[in-house]
């Protein structure tokens, strides 16, 4: 601390009293702020509150991803397939509906005042993924319900024509697929739009990570369905899709980790039991094993059923581990003030929202009362 | 500040009824709906008496949350939370080598004290995150949680860049400082500011507080305390990343982190668009890949 009045005394804190050219960064920075932050925190006390989300929300993110992406695959199989993909279409639609049905109970169980869950649909807010996500889930549930019920009631007729119910189901599938894309990835935006260091450091990479994982798990689940139905050709195509998505997830995970490292956050995802679980469960088992299995199968003339099933199961398990690890590590990182302060020494990605929710202080003349 | 002339009209010990616009007498500010009100917390004046913590708990009927000792100087509350809406931080400045510091900056002890509170951010991340609309902006430009709407989703908790709002285990709803919404409606100064014996907490119209605060910084600098700066006023630390300014802002004399404040907090909602659009783009790419695979003839053995 400096007791001698400084010639450079930054009276810049009164900007109106200053000539504009004196607003250079040096003049703006008062002595205390100019001092570099050397890692001191307030008794190591957390500066943030960790999210109250637990495994239920992580499980929801996983299920929402499988359901959303299944609907996409089912829709593509119905529109582009050659008619031998009926099981993919059916399983995809059922999976989508099952996910849409399993999601709300998990979300509601996580509310601390669950009897008021319906307040979620009281307003609509683009700045809150929790808000618009509720509408995505509702719309996806309705559309997926239509596709699945239509499918259940009206299987394709022998002559190839479709019943009225089935046609209604087919009409609902395109909007359902669009909402499915939202289901697969809005949850990443939900985590990134917080102050939690780990989640806030890599909003873009994490969105790709969640989206690709959603597609990989959906393809893996549908591939297992084809194994049951005994259609190796379909398995092969779905395994190919799972492998492409898993490869994308591998790249996205690497990019996310690099972003987090650069921002000086994310130690909990690399160290300790959570880090070990993430590396072994999400990366090695969830991505490494299936990529290897599917690669061997793709190269061999006679693809092995065992390898395909193993790859699919590994993807499904890895996807769940990935969500849980990212959740736990994020909550842990919020409790570490040094991680948060390193992140907030510089402005991270995407800090200037284009849409203002609140009005300007100055422009607030006559305002409506709430 | 002298006595307000209107004070003479209410000289009796037991006023018979509520004094209209009492805030005019206690802090020289008349509370009018439609204007912006907030706190200027001048940490150089804080003596760590915790009158604000107690006054807040009393007025708002908040339970005691920790009857033990944290061992962190005189700070027994630890942090802001569902039951603590004002929190006095005690930073003991140790000298070199773990010794007591011997030189002191003018007008300072080697103890920094700061009464922390919800910042009532101009672009409040908690409000932007709340999916039920239970967090709203009042007619006094403050940020309040409506307890009868909150469903305890907890999304506001990680959204706040200052770790202020918290879910209460007792009732499953989010709680934080309301800037004494009920008192403002009745023309009363917030309890913490009214109880502060040193005027470290000043309540008033935000623009007026900014002027007052800038003058205070200038005068401190003139006196040699060149460390003083504002946190949360427009274009100062704390008012970064789209937050614009904080309706409850601070005068500090050390780095923000020392007081447990982030130097450049961000507005969480700024990450919705980049994240969501990138995710959708990835899904579009995957859909194309899937479309190619689905329309291609069946490979292999059929
Ligand atoms: S400090 Fe936190 S709780 Fe207070 S208004 Fe800002 S975001 Fe909301
Ligand atoms: S916990 Fe309550 S106040 Fe917070 S975001 Fe959810 S509904 Fe809104």
Provide tags for this entry.
heterodimer, A: 370 residues, mainly alpha, 66% helix, 0% strand, globular, disordered N terminus, disordered C terminus, B: 302 residues, alpha+beta, 4-stranded mixed sheet, two-stranded antiparallel ribbon, 8 helices, 25% helix, binds iron/sulfur cluster
Concise structural overview:
The complex is a heterodimer of chains A (370) and B (302). Chain A is an all-alpha fold and 370 residues long.
Explain this structure:
The complex is a heterodimer of chains A (370) and B (302). With 370 residues, chain A is mainly α. The model of chain A is unreliable at 1-28 and 350-370 (pLDDT under 50). The longest helix of chain A has 31 residues, at 232-262. The radius of gyration of chain A is 25 Å and the shape is globular. Chain A is built from 13 helices and no strands. In chain A, helix 3 (55-80) packs across helix 8. Chain B is of the alpha+beta class. Chain B contains eight helices and ten strands. Chain B has a four-stranded mixed β-sheet with strand order 8-1-10-9. The longest helix of chain B has 24 residues, at 272-295. Chain B is globular. The N and C termini of chain B lie far apart (92 Å). The mean pLDDT of chain B is 92. At the A-B interface, helix 2, helix 3, helix 5, helix 6 and helix 8 of A face helix 3, helix 4, strand 6, helix 7 and helix 8 of B. One iron/sulfur cluster is lined by residues 129-130, 132, 134-135, 145, 150-156, 174 of chain B. Residues 129-130, 132, 134-135, 145, 150-156, 174 of chain B line the site of one iron/sulfur cluster (SF4).
